[in-house]
Design brief:
Elements: H1 2-22, H2 24-52, H3 59-103
Length: 107
């Protein structure tokens, strides 16, 4: 019984495959599908070519640059604070010097 179904399946498959090749509608559909596959392969090749020509991803370098910028900005702010403190100290010392000169003027 098993051999009967097995050989029957083979005969049915052979019959269906043989009849598909002869049906003009299926042949036409197969040709259209082949043309569509060729078109899609061409589009895929164009997309792959564009992907190969893309510039390299520089997001890691950008993150590094942003971190360096933040560090330098913090240092700049710190130095600006030091300069402001030194300028205030200079102004205070100049005031004290002027007071000293008035108090102990040389005649």
């Amino acid at each position: 019984m098993k051999n009967f179904f097995h050989s029957g399946t083979a005969i049915t498959a052979a019959f269906l495959l043989g009849s598909c090749g002869e049906d003009p509608e299926l042949v036409k559909k197969h040709g259209e599908q082949q043309a569509e596959i060729a078109k899609l392969n061409g589009e895929l090749a164009l997309i792959n070519a564009r992907l190969k020509n893309l510039p390299p991803d520089e997001s890691a370098e950008l993150k590094k640059s942003l971190a360096e910028t933040e560090k330098l900005e913090a240092e700049r702010a710190s130095l600006a604070g030091e300069v402001a403190a030194l300028e205030a100290e200079q102004k205070e010392l100049l005031g004290k010097y002027e007071d000293y000169k008035r108090k102990y003027s040389i005649r």
